[in-house]
Write a structure and sequence with these properties.
Layout lengths: L12 E5 L9 E8 L7 E5 L2 E2 L5 E3 L5 E3 L3 E2 L2 E5 L8 E4 L4 E6 L16 H10 L3 H15 L1 E11 L4 E9 L2 E5 L5 E4 L16 E3 L3 H8 L4 H4 L4 H5 L2 H5 L1 H15 L21 H8 L19 H4 L9 E9 L5 H4 E7 L8 E4 L14 H6 L16 H14 L1 H36 L1 H26 L5
Antiparallel strand pairs: 1-2, 1-14, 2-16, 3-8, 4-7, 5-6, 8-9, 9-10, 10-11, 11-12, 12-13, 13-15, 16-17, 17-18
Helix pairs in contact: 1-2, 12-13, 12-14, 13-14
Protein backbone atom coordinates (compact mmCIF):
# COMPACT_ATOMS: atom_id res chain seq x y z
CA UNK A 1 0.00 0.00 0.00
CA UNK A 2 1.36 3.42 -0.91
CA UNK A 3 1.35 6.40 1.40
CA UNK A 4 -2.00 8.13 1.55
CA UNK A 5 -3.98 5.32 -0.09
CA UNK A 6 -6.35 4.84 2.81
CA UNK A 7 -7.04 8.57 2.96
CA UNK A 8 -8.52 8.35 -0.51
CA UNK A 9 -10.26 5.03 0.11
CA UNK A 10 -8.14 2.96 -2.29
CA UNK A 11 -9.67 -0.41 -1.63
CA UNK A 12 -11.81 -2.75 -3.75
CA UNK A 13 -12.40 -3.03 -7.47
CA UNK A 14 -15.53 -4.05 -9.39
CA UNK A 15 -16.77 -4.82 -12.90
CA UNK A 16 -20.38 -5.13 -14.11
CA UNK A 17 -21.17 -6.72 -17.48
CA UNK A 18 -24.60 -6.33 -19.09
CA UNK A 19 -26.30 -9.52 -20.28
CA UNK A 20 -25.81 -8.73 -23.98
CA UNK A 21 -22.09 -8.11 -23.43
CA UNK A 22 -21.41 -11.61 -22.06
CA UNK A 23 -20.82 -14.75 -24.11
CA UNK A 24 -23.88 -16.60 -22.82
CA UNK A 25 -26.34 -13.84 -21.91
CA UNK A 26 -25.47 -13.83 -18.20
CA UNK A 27 -25.11 -10.68 -16.16
CA UNK A 28 -21.56 -10.82 -14.79
CA UNK A 29 -20.34 -9.09 -11.63
CA UNK A 30 -16.66 -9.28 -10.65
CA UNK A 31 -15.26 -7.94 -7.39
CA UNK A 32 -12.03 -7.84 -5.37
CA UNK A 33 -12.66 -7.07 -1.70
CA UNK A 34 -9.63 -5.19 -0.38
CA UNK A 35 -9.14 -4.48 3.32
CA UNK A 36 -5.75 -3.95 4.94
CA UNK A 37 -4.39 -5.59 8.05
CA UNK A 38 -4.90 -9.13 9.29
CA UNK A 39 -8.42 -10.18 8.28
CA UNK A 40 -10.56 -13.31 8.20
CA UNK A 41 -13.50 -14.21 5.98
CA UNK A 42 -16.32 -16.36 7.38
CA UNK A 43 -18.80 -17.95 4.96
CA UNK A 44 -22.41 -18.47 6.03
CA UNK A 45 -25.73 -19.43 4.52
CA UNK A 46 -28.37 -17.57 6.52
CA UNK A 47 -31.87 -19.10 6.31
CA UNK A 48 -35.11 -17.17 5.97
CA UNK A 49 -36.13 -15.49 9.21
CA UNK A 50 -39.41 -14.22 10.64
CA UNK A 51 -39.47 -11.28 13.04
CA UNK A 52 -41.99 -10.11 15.61
CA UNK A 53 -44.03 -7.07 14.65
CA UNK A 54 -42.40 -3.87 15.86
CA UNK A 55 -39.00 -5.44 16.37
CA UNK A 56 -35.97 -3.25 15.59
CA UNK A 57 -32.20 -3.55 15.78
CA UNK A 58 -29.92 -0.87 17.15
CA UNK A 59 -27.36 0.12 14.52
CA UNK A 60 -23.72 0.84 15.31
CA UNK A 61 -24.23 4.61 15.62
CA UNK A 62 -27.36 4.27 17.76
CA UNK A 63 -30.24 4.51 15.28
CA UNK A 64 -33.12 2.03 15.38
CA UNK A 65 -33.78 0.03 12.19
CA UNK A 66 -37.20 -1.67 12.08
CA UNK A 67 -37.07 -5.33 11.11
CA UNK A 68 -39.25 -6.65 8.28
CA UNK A 69 -41.69 -9.44 9.11
CA UNK A 70 -39.71 -11.85 6.98
CA UNK A 71 -36.17 -11.73 5.60
CA UNK A 72 -34.66 -13.59 2.65
CA UNK A 73 -32.18 -16.42 2.86
CA UNK A 74 -28.71 -15.41 1.69
CA UNK A 75 -25.04 -16.23 1.59
CA UNK A 76 -23.03 -13.91 3.79
CA UNK A 77 -19.31 -13.40 3.28
CA UNK A 78 -18.42 -11.89 6.62
CA UNK A 79 -15.35 -9.87 7.48
CA UNK A 80 -15.57 -9.42 11.27
CA UNK A 81 -15.07 -5.91 12.67
CA UNK A 82 -15.35 -4.30 9.23
CA UNK A 83 -18.07 -1.78 8.32
CA UNK A 84 -17.78 -2.32 4.58
CA UNK A 85 -16.19 -5.70 3.83
CA UNK A 86 -19.17 -8.06 3.78
CA UNK A 87 -20.60 -9.48 0.56
CA UNK A 88 -24.08 -10.90 -0.02
CA UNK A 89 -25.75 -13.30 -2.48
CA UNK A 90 -29.44 -13.73 -1.66
CA UNK A 91 -32.01 -16.39 -2.55
CA UNK A 92 -33.32 -14.30 -5.47
CA UNK A 93 -29.88 -14.08 -7.04
CA UNK A 94 -29.17 -10.52 -5.91
CA UNK A 95 -25.44 -9.97 -5.36
CA UNK A 96 -24.10 -6.98 -3.40
CA UNK A 97 -20.61 -5.63 -2.72
CA UNK A 98 -19.10 -2.15 -2.63
CA UNK A 99 -16.15 0.13 -3.37
CA UNK A 100 -15.19 3.17 -1.29
CA UNK A 101 -15.78 6.39 -3.28
CA UNK A 102 -15.00 9.46 -1.14
CA UNK A 103 -17.31 12.45 -1.57
CA UNK A 104 -16.70 16.17 -1.04
CA UNK A 105 -19.62 16.52 1.37
CA UNK A 106 -18.46 18.24 4.58
CA UNK A 107 -21.85 19.07 6.11
CA UNK A 108 -23.67 15.73 6.09
CA UNK A 109 -27.22 15.51 7.38
CA UNK A 110 -27.57 12.43 9.57
CA UNK A 111 -30.52 11.17 11.59
CA UNK A 112 -29.77 9.11 14.72
CA UNK A 113 -26.15 8.72 13.66
CA UNK A 114 -26.89 7.55 10.13
CA UNK A 115 -26.55 4.13 8.51
CA UNK A 116 -23.42 2.27 7.40
CA UNK A 117 -23.13 -1.47 8.01
CA UNK A 118 -26.81 -2.32 7.78
CA UNK A 119 -27.38 -0.71 4.40
CA UNK A 120 -26.16 -3.66 2.34
CA UNK A 121 -27.55 -6.22 4.77
CA UNK A 122 -31.00 -4.64 4.48
CA UNK A 123 -30.77 -4.93 0.71
CA UNK A 124 -29.82 -8.61 0.93
CA UNK A 125 -32.56 -9.36 3.44
CA UNK A 126 -35.40 -7.66 1.59
CA UNK A 127 -34.69 -7.30 -2.14
CA UNK A 128 -36.20 -9.59 -4.76
CA UNK A 129 -34.25 -7.88 -7.55
CA UNK A 130 -31.32 -5.53 -8.07
CA UNK A 131 -33.70 -2.68 -8.87
CA UNK A 132 -35.63 -3.25 -5.66
CA UNK A 133 -32.34 -3.24 -3.74
CA UNK A 134 -31.59 0.21 -5.17
CA UNK A 135 -34.98 1.49 -3.96
CA UNK A 136 -34.43 -0.01 -0.50
CA UNK A 137 -30.99 1.56 -0.21
CA UNK A 138 -32.21 4.93 -1.48
CA UNK A 139 -35.03 5.03 1.06
CA UNK A 140 -32.66 4.18 3.91
CA UNK A 141 -30.08 6.79 2.89
CA UNK A 142 -32.80 9.44 2.69
CA UNK A 143 -34.22 8.40 6.08
CA UNK A 144 -31.01 8.07 8.12
CA UNK A 145 -28.22 9.59 6.04
CA UNK A 146 -25.08 7.76 4.95
CA UNK A 147 -22.55 7.92 7.79
CA UNK A 148 -19.33 7.63 5.79
CA UNK A 149 -17.60 9.81 3.22
CA UNK A 150 -19.03 8.02 0.21
CA UNK A 151 -19.34 4.63 -1.43
CA UNK A 152 -20.68 2.90 -4.52
CA UNK A 153 -22.68 -0.28 -3.94
CA UNK A 154 -22.56 -2.63 -6.90
CA UNK A 155 -25.79 -4.60 -7.19
CA UNK A 156 -26.68 -7.25 -9.76
CA UNK A 157 -29.23 -9.92 -10.55
CA UNK A 158 -29.83 -12.15 -13.58
CA UNK A 159 -31.48 -9.33 -15.54
CA UNK A 160 -29.42 -6.21 -14.85
CA UNK A 161 -26.66 -4.52 -12.87
CA UNK A 162 -26.69 -1.18 -11.03
CA UNK A 163 -24.17 1.19 -9.47
CA UNK A 164 -25.64 2.87 -6.36
CA UNK A 165 -23.52 5.83 -5.24
CA UNK A 166 -24.11 7.12 -1.71
CA UNK A 167 -22.82 10.53 -0.62
CA UNK A 168 -22.04 11.41 3.00
CA UNK A 169 -25.47 12.44 4.26
CA UNK A 170 -28.80 12.03 2.46
CA UNK A 171 -27.94 12.25 -1.23
CA UNK A 172 -27.53 9.38 -3.64
CA UNK A 173 -27.79 8.40 -7.29
CA UNK A 174 -27.92 5.07 -9.12
CA UNK A 175 -27.37 4.14 -12.73
CA UNK A 176 -28.17 0.94 -14.60
CA UNK A 177 -25.40 -0.61 -16.69
CA UNK A 178 -26.57 -0.85 -20.33
CA UNK A 179 -27.19 -4.44 -21.43
CA UNK A 180 -24.55 -4.29 -24.16
CA UNK A 181 -21.86 -2.54 -22.12
CA UNK A 182 -19.44 -3.14 -19.25
CA UNK A 183 -18.73 -0.81 -16.34
CA UNK A 184 -15.50 -0.65 -14.31
CA UNK A 185 -15.32 0.81 -10.80
CA UNK A 186 -12.12 1.73 -8.92
CA UNK A 187 -12.48 4.01 -5.86
CA UNK A 188 -14.14 7.08 -7.27
CA UNK A 189 -17.65 7.78 -8.47
CA UNK A 190 -18.09 6.89 -12.14
CA UNK A 191 -21.67 8.06 -12.78
CA UNK A 192 -21.54 11.13 -15.01
CA UNK A 193 -24.63 12.66 -16.60
CA UNK A 194 -27.87 11.98 -14.73
CA UNK A 195 -31.45 11.98 -16.04
CA UNK A 196 -33.81 11.26 -13.15
CA UNK A 197 -36.80 11.44 -15.52
CA UNK A 198 -35.47 8.24 -17.13
CA UNK A 199 -36.41 5.92 -14.28
CA UNK A 200 -35.52 2.84 -16.33
CA UNK A 201 -31.85 3.74 -16.14
CA UNK A 202 -31.48 6.31 -13.32
CA UNK A 203 -32.73 6.67 -9.77
CA UNK A 204 -31.65 9.17 -7.13
CA UNK A 205 -32.35 12.01 -4.72
CA UNK A 206 -34.85 14.48 -6.15
CA UNK A 207 -32.73 17.47 -5.09
CA UNK A 208 -29.39 16.04 -6.23
CA UNK A 209 -28.66 18.90 -8.64
CA UNK A 210 -30.37 21.69 -6.67
CA UNK A 211 -28.34 20.84 -3.57
CA UNK A 212 -25.09 20.96 -5.55
CA UNK A 213 -26.05 24.40 -6.89
CA UNK A 214 -26.90 25.57 -3.36
CA UNK A 215 -23.49 24.44 -2.07
CA UNK A 216 -21.68 26.18 -4.93
CA UNK A 217 -20.32 22.92 -6.33
CA UNK A 218 -22.19 23.25 -9.62
CA UNK A 219 -23.15 26.21 -11.78
CA UNK A 220 -25.10 25.27 -14.94
CA UNK A 221 -23.88 28.33 -16.85
CA UNK A 222 -20.26 27.83 -15.85
CA UNK A 223 -20.09 24.04 -15.90
CA UNK A 224 -22.56 22.99 -18.58
CA UNK A 225 -24.24 19.60 -18.16
CA UNK A 226 -24.38 18.21 -14.64
CA UNK A 227 -21.80 15.45 -14.09
CA UNK A 228 -22.33 13.66 -10.78
CA UNK A 229 -18.78 12.35 -10.36
CA UNK A 230 -17.14 15.70 -11.08
CA UNK A 231 -19.56 17.58 -8.83
CA UNK A 232 -19.81 15.27 -5.80
CA UNK A 233 -16.44 13.45 -5.68
CA UNK A 234 -13.62 14.23 -3.32
CA UNK A 235 -11.20 15.83 -5.82
CA UNK A 236 -8.32 13.83 -4.40
CA UNK A 237 -9.93 10.52 -5.31
CA UNK A 238 -10.48 11.57 -8.94
CA UNK A 239 -6.84 12.60 -9.29
CA UNK A 240 -5.21 9.78 -7.34
CA UNK A 241 -2.84 7.71 -9.53
CA UNK A 242 -4.07 4.49 -7.93
CA UNK A 243 -7.59 5.15 -9.20
CA UNK A 244 -6.50 6.47 -12.59
CA UNK A 245 -4.22 3.49 -13.19
CA UNK A 246 -6.71 0.80 -12.15
CA UNK A 247 -9.54 2.41 -14.12
CA UNK A 248 -7.34 2.59 -17.23
CA UNK A 249 -6.13 -0.99 -16.88
CA UNK A 250 -9.58 -2.40 -16.15
CA UNK A 251 -11.23 -0.61 -19.07
CA UNK A 252 -8.46 -1.66 -21.46
CA UNK A 253 -8.73 -5.31 -20.41
CA UNK A 254 -12.52 -5.62 -20.56
CA UNK A 255 -13.00 -3.54 -23.70
CA UNK A 256 -10.07 -4.85 -25.72
CA UNK A 257 -9.41 -1.27 -26.84
CA UNK A 258 -6.17 0.76 -26.53
CA UNK A 259 -7.08 3.63 -24.22
CA UNK A 260 -4.54 6.12 -22.89
CA UNK A 261 -3.87 6.64 -19.19
CA UNK A 262 -5.18 10.21 -19.26
CA UNK A 263 -8.38 9.50 -21.19
CA UNK A 264 -11.64 10.70 -19.65
CA UNK A 265 -13.48 7.41 -19.17
CA UNK A 266 -17.24 7.11 -19.48
CA UNK A 267 -19.46 5.21 -17.04
CA UNK A 268 -19.44 2.13 -19.28
CA UNK A 269 -18.03 0.94 -22.62
CA UNK A 270 -18.95 -1.53 -25.35
CA UNK A 271 -16.44 -4.40 -25.29
CA UNK A 272 -14.73 -5.48 -28.50
CA UNK A 273 -15.71 -9.08 -27.76
CA UNK A 274 -18.24 -10.63 -25.43
CA UNK A 275 -16.94 -11.59 -22.01
CA UNK A 276 -16.90 -14.85 -20.06
CA UNK A 277 -16.33 -15.37 -16.32
CA UNK A 278 -12.76 -16.45 -17.07
CA UNK A 279 -12.06 -13.08 -18.72
CA UNK A 280 -13.07 -11.27 -15.54
CA UNK A 281 -11.02 -13.63 -13.39
CA UNK A 282 -7.97 -12.63 -15.42
CA UNK A 283 -8.71 -8.96 -14.75
CA UNK A 284 -9.10 -9.56 -11.01
CA UNK A 285 -5.64 -11.18 -10.99
CA UNK A 286 -3.92 -8.30 -12.76
CA UNK A 287 -0.82 -6.38 -11.57
CA UNK A 288 -0.28 -4.33 -14.77
CA UNK A 289 1.77 -7.14 -16.32
CA UNK A 290 3.32 -6.11 -19.63
CA UNK A 291 2.41 -2.42 -19.32
CA UNK A 292 4.38 0.72 -18.57
CA UNK A 293 3.14 0.46 -14.97
CA UNK A 294 4.76 -2.94 -14.37
CA UNK A 295 8.02 -2.44 -12.48
CA UNK A 296 8.66 -6.17 -12.08
CA UNK A 297 9.39 -7.24 -15.69
CA UNK A 298 6.95 -10.13 -15.28
CA UNK A 299 8.13 -10.71 -11.68
CA UNK A 300 11.83 -11.08 -12.63
CA UNK A 301 12.65 -8.06 -10.48
CA UNK A 302 10.45 -9.05 -7.55
CA UNK A 303 7.01 -9.10 -5.97
CA UNK A 304 4.39 -6.87 -7.69
CA UNK A 305 2.92 -5.94 -4.31
CA UNK A 306 6.24 -4.34 -3.37
CA UNK A 307 7.19 -2.82 -6.73
CA UNK A 308 3.91 -1.90 -8.45
CA UNK A 309 1.56 0.81 -7.18
CA UNK A 310 -2.14 0.18 -6.48
CA UNK A 311 -2.73 -2.95 -8.53
CA UNK A 312 -6.17 -4.44 -9.28
CA UNK A 313 -5.20 -7.60 -7.41
CA UNK A 314 -3.83 -6.15 -4.19
CA UNK A 315 -1.97 -7.56 -1.23
CA UNK A 316 -5.00 -6.49 0.80
CA UNK A 317 -7.46 -8.51 -1.32
CA UNK A 318 -9.22 -10.80 1.16
CA UNK A 319 -11.70 -12.47 -1.18
CA UNK A 320 -12.64 -12.25 -4.82
CA UNK A 321 -15.64 -13.36 -6.85
CA UNK A 322 -17.23 -13.44 -10.29
CA UNK A 323 -21.01 -13.81 -10.18
CA UNK A 324 -22.50 -15.49 -13.27
CA UNK A 325 -26.22 -14.71 -13.18
CA UNK A 326 -28.48 -16.41 -15.76
CA UNK A 327 -32.27 -16.21 -15.99
CA UNK A 328 -33.11 -19.07 -18.38
CA UNK A 329 -32.79 -21.92 -15.90
CA UNK A 330 -33.91 -22.38 -12.29
CA UNK A 331 -32.30 -19.59 -10.28
CA UNK A 332 -30.76 -22.09 -7.87
CA UNK A 333 -28.73 -23.38 -10.82
CA UNK A 334 -28.55 -20.35 -13.09
CA UNK A 335 -27.00 -18.09 -10.46
CA UNK A 336 -23.49 -19.16 -9.49
CA UNK A 337 -20.84 -17.15 -7.69
CA UNK A 338 -17.27 -18.17 -8.50
CA UNK A 339 -15.33 -17.38 -5.35
CA UNK A 340 -11.64 -17.26 -4.41
CA UNK A 341 -10.63 -16.77 -0.80
CA UNK A 342 -7.69 -14.43 -0.17
CA UNK A 343 -5.92 -13.24 -3.36
CA UNK A 344 -7.03 -14.49 -6.77
CA UNK A 345 -3.49 -14.37 -8.22
CA UNK A 346 -2.44 -17.27 -6.00
CA UNK A 347 -5.77 -19.08 -5.57
CA UNK A 348 -8.49 -20.68 -7.66
CA UNK A 349 -12.13 -19.71 -8.08
CA UNK A 350 -14.72 -22.31 -7.04
CA UNK A 351 -18.45 -22.38 -7.90
CA UNK A 352 -20.99 -21.55 -5.21
CA UNK A 353 -24.42 -22.24 -6.69
CA UNK A 354 -27.41 -20.36 -5.33
CA UNK A 355 -29.12 -23.68 -4.63
CA UNK A 356 -26.41 -24.69 -2.16
CA UNK A 357 -28.17 -25.31 1.14
CA UNK A 358 -25.19 -25.20 3.49
CA UNK A 359 -21.55 -24.19 3.66
CA UNK A 360 -19.26 -27.08 4.67
CA UNK A 361 -17.83 -27.15 8.16
CA UNK A 362 -14.60 -25.26 8.66
CA UNK A 363 -15.35 -22.07 6.73
CA UNK A 364 -16.61 -20.10 9.72
CA UNK A 365 -16.18 -19.63 13.45
CA UNK A 366 -19.44 -19.71 15.42
CA UNK A 367 -22.93 -19.85 13.92
CA UNK A 368 -24.19 -16.89 11.90
CA UNK A 369 -26.30 -15.42 14.73
CA UNK A 370 -23.40 -15.42 17.19
CA UNK A 371 -21.06 -14.03 14.57
CA UNK A 372 -23.47 -11.19 13.76
CA UNK A 373 -23.79 -10.36 17.46
CA UNK A 374 -19.98 -10.25 17.79
CA UNK A 375 -19.33 -8.64 14.40
CA UNK A 376 -17.70 -5.46 15.73
CA UNK A 377 -15.95 -7.16 18.65
CA UNK A 378 -14.73 -10.54 17.37
CA UNK A 379 -12.75 -12.74 19.77
CA UNK A 380 -8.97 -12.95 19.43
CA UNK A 381 -9.02 -16.60 18.35
CA UNK A 382 -10.59 -15.59 15.03
CA UNK A 383 -7.13 -14.31 14.02
CA UNK A 384 -4.90 -17.14 15.26
CA UNK A 385 -4.39 -18.67 11.77
CA UNK A 386 -5.64 -22.04 12.95
CA UNK A 387 -5.71 -25.12 10.75
CA UNK A 388 -9.41 -25.70 11.44
CA UNK A 389 -10.58 -22.78 9.26
CA UNK A 390 -10.41 -22.86 5.46
CA UNK A 391 -9.57 -19.19 5.12
CA UNK A 392 -6.27 -19.59 6.93
CA UNK A 393 -5.17 -22.33 4.52
CA UNK A 394 -5.66 -19.82 1.71
CA UNK A 395 -3.92 -17.09 3.70
CA UNK A 396 -0.89 -19.32 4.34
CA UNK A 397 -0.57 -20.15 0.65
CA UNK A 398 -0.52 -16.45 -0.29
CA UNK A 399 2.04 -15.82 2.44
CA UNK A 400 4.24 -18.67 1.19
CA UNK A 401 4.07 -17.41 -2.41
CA UNK A 402 5.04 -13.91 -1.27
CA UNK A 403 8.24 -15.17 0.36
CA UNK A 404 9.66 -15.91 -3.12
CA UNK A 405 7.03 -14.58 -5.51
CA UNK A 406 9.02 -14.64 -8.74
CA UNK A 407 10.05 -18.29 -8.28
CA UNK A 408 6.74 -19.64 -6.97
CA UNK A 409 3.83 -17.83 -8.59
CA UNK A 410 4.00 -19.43 -12.06
CA UNK A 411 3.92 -22.99 -10.71
CA UNK A 412 1.08 -22.14 -8.34
CA UNK A 413 -0.91 -20.44 -11.10
CA UNK A 414 -0.42 -23.45 -13.40
CA UNK A 415 -1.89 -25.74 -10.75
CA UNK A 416 -4.89 -23.47 -10.20
CA UNK A 417 -5.29 -23.08 -13.96
CA UNK A 418 -5.69 -26.84 -14.31
CA UNK A 419 -8.03 -26.84 -11.32
CA UNK A 420 -10.30 -24.21 -12.88
CA UNK A 421 -10.12 -25.87 -16.30
CA UNK A 422 -11.66 -28.98 -14.74
CA UNK A 423 -14.41 -26.91 -13.11
CA UNK A 424 -15.40 -25.16 -16.32
CA UNK A 425 -15.25 -28.38 -18.36
CA UNK A 426 -17.62 -30.04 -15.89
CA UNK A 427 -20.04 -27.10 -15.66
CA UNK A 428 -22.20 -27.70 -18.80
CA UNK A 429 -22.72 -31.40 -18.12
CA UNK A 430 -23.45 -30.85 -14.45
CA UNK A 431 -25.99 -28.11 -15.16
CA UNK A 432 -27.72 -30.11 -17.89
CA UNK A 433 -28.09 -33.04 -15.52
CA UNK A 434 -29.37 -30.81 -12.72
CA UNK A 435 -31.97 -29.19 -14.99
CA UNK A 436 -33.40 -32.63 -15.73
CA UNK A 437 -33.45 -33.59 -12.05
CA UNK A 438 -35.08 -30.25 -11.13
CA UNK A 439 -38.08 -31.18 -13.28
CA UNK A 440 -38.55 -34.42 -11.36
CA UNK A 441 -37.34 -33.79 -7.83
CA UNK A 442 -36.34 -30.29 -6.69
CA UNK A 443 -35.17 -31.46 -3.26
CA UNK A 444 -32.85 -34.04 -4.81
CA UNK A 445 -31.45 -31.42 -7.20
CA UNK A 446 -30.70 -29.07 -4.31
CA UNK A 447 -28.97 -31.86 -2.41
CA UNK A 448 -26.76 -32.62 -5.40
CA UNK A 449 -26.00 -28.94 -6.00
CA UNK A 450 -25.00 -28.59 -2.35
CA UNK A 451 -22.69 -31.59 -2.56
CA UNK A 452 -21.14 -30.19 -5.75
CA UNK A 453 -20.46 -26.68 -4.43
CA UNK A 454 -19.28 -27.93 -1.06
CA UNK A 455 -17.00 -30.41 -2.76
CA UNK A 456 -15.19 -27.70 -4.72
CA UNK A 457 -14.79 -25.52 -1.63
CA UNK A 458 -13.20 -28.41 0.23
CA UNK A 459 -10.96 -29.28 -2.73
CA UNK A 460 -9.72 -25.70 -2.76
CA UNK A 461 -8.84 -25.94 0.93
CA UNK A 462 -7.05 -29.26 0.38
CA UNK A 463 -5.15 -27.83 -2.60
CA UNK A 464 -3.90 -24.90 -0.52
CA UNK A 465 -2.66 -27.23 2.20
CA UNK A 466 -0.90 -29.46 -0.32
CA UNK A 467 0.93 -26.55 -1.96
CA UNK A 468 2.53 -25.17 1.21
CA UNK A 469 5.52 -27.27 2.33
CA UNK A 470 5.25 -28.67 5.82
CA UNK A 471 7.47 -26.97 8.38
CA UNK A 472 10.34 -29.14 9.54
Amino acid sequence: MIAGEKDQGLDCFSILVGKNASVDGAVLFAHNEDDGGLQIVNLYRVPRQTNDAGKAITMKNGGELPRPEETNAYFWFQMPKMNFGDGYFNEFGVVIASDACPSREDKPELTDGGIIYWLRRAMAEQAHSAREAVHIAGNLVEKYGYASSGRTYVIADAKEGWMFSAVHGKHWVAKRVPDDEVAVLPNYYTIGEVDLSDTTNYLGSADLIDYAIQRGWYDPQRDGKFHFAKVYSNPGSLKHPGNIHRMWRGVCLVSGLPFNLNDDFSFSVKPKKKLAPQDLMRVLRDHYEGTELDNTDHYKLGNPYLLNRSTICANSTQYSFVAQLRDWMPKELGCVLWMALRRPDSHGFVPLYLGTQKIPDGFSYDDWETSLEKHFSPPDYYYEKRDDHGFWAHWKLADWVDQDYQNRIYAVQKIWGDFEKSEFEMQPGFEKKMEMIFKKDRADALRLITDYSDGWLLKSWEKCVSLVPKEE
